[in-house]
TrEMBL record:
HAMAP family named among the record's database cross-references: CobD_CbiB
Family note: Belongs to the CobD/CbiB family.
Free-text function comment from the UniProt entry: Converts cobyric acid to cobinamide by the addition of aminopropanol on the F carboxylic group.
Gene that produces this protein: cobD
Higher taxonomy: Bacteria, Pseudomonadati, Pseudomonadota, Gammaproteobacteria, Lysobacterales
Protein name (Swiss-Prot/TrEMBL): Cobalamin biosynthesis protein CobD
Record InterPro entries: Cobalamin_biosynth_CobD/CbiB
Length: 298
């Protein structure tokens, strides 16, 4: 019921327009980085424990002193803050709409809010591919991963996953500054995302072309540099029967990336299709969670 209420709040209210908790957390994480940054893994581990371990421990302690009804309400609020299904659509649909009306400039601007690649050099198909990939990957990062850990550990689980995922996005880069300091953030995000990423890939398969999703997952996911994004995006591309991956421009240079999926070149329809996979997947997860809850309390 908590998962149902939290996803309902997200569908109704979306992300907070002001005072978003993850924006505030980003400022806290940046302060922790400035304080503890050293070119050493031990410094990164200490920073991760401070930035993630302390908030999660405080939430566990708070739940321990609250009555059951207040714990339920707190868990709903935490999961609502951790997921971003409506926000995903609010970012992706303007890209699809711009491509549908052949407004490439507007589509490039809109996709720039979702991806880190150089959007000015992208064709219409590459814009659609970037947006589709982002929706598929964020379906795990911003929706199913938090729901998985919430199902296991309640509010602290959702908070643990979302904060760890946020730190990976901030520190998990192979650059001179983060190669050692960000090692813990990158590896721990991989560990926490391992099971939910594969459940997300299976969810995409069930919500789309099942055989194509499994075929692409098996053949293409091992080639992707991220152990969790690979299964998610390969299965999602196969489920949509769309060709993703391939070269992409970053920081003025085109980088080679493995191919994902099969079939048609991406367009506005593939963006909407990816959003549909996420929406149908959320419905499936809620039904399964409800059934498990009923059986557990029978």
């Amino acid at each position: 019921m908590a998962m149902l209420l939290a996803t309902g709040l997200d569908a109704w209210l979306g992300e907070p327009k002001r005072w978003h908790p993850l924006v505030g957390y980003g400022r806290v994480a940046s302060a922790v980085e400035r304080w503890l940054h050293r070119d050493a893994r031990v410094a990164g581990v200490a920073a991760w424990c401070l930035a993630v371990g302390v908030p999660v421990a405080l939430l566990v302690a708070l739940r321990g002193v609250l009555p059951a009804w207040a714990v339920f309400v707190l868990d709903v609020v935490v999961l609502y803050a951790a997921i971003g299904r409506r926000s995903l659509g609010e970012h992706a649909r303007p890209i699809a709409d711009a491509l549908a009306r052949h407004d490439l400039d507007a589509a490039r601007v809109a996709v720039g809010w979702m991806v880190s690649r150089d959007t000015a050099a992208l064709t219409a198909s590459q814009v659609a591919g970037a947006a589709t990939e982002s929706v598929l990957e964020n379906g795990h990062d911003a929706v199913f991963g938090a729901m998985f850990w919430f199902a296991l550990l309640g509010g602290p689980g959702a908070l643990l996953f979302r904060l760890a995922n946020t730190l990976d996005a901030m520190w998990g880069y192979r650059t001179p500054r983060y190669l050692h300091f960000g090692w813990a953030a990158a590896r721990l995000d991989d560990v926490l995302g391992y099971l939910p990423a594969r459940l997300t890939a299976l969810t995409y398969a069930m919500a789309g072309r099942f055989d194509g999703a499994l075929r692409c997952w098996r053949a293409q996911a091992p080639r992707w540099k991220s152990p969790n994004a690979g299964p998610v995006m390969a299965a999602g591309a196969g489920a949509l029967h769309v060709a993703l991956g391939g070269p992409a421009p970053y920081h003025g240079q085109w980088q080679e990336r493995p191919l994902l999926g099969e079939g048609d070149a991406p367009d506005a329809t593939s963006i909407r299709g990816a959003l549909g996979l996420v929406d149908r997947g959320v419905a499936v997860w809620l039904v399964v969670a409800l059934l498990i809850g009923v059986v557990a309390h029978a």
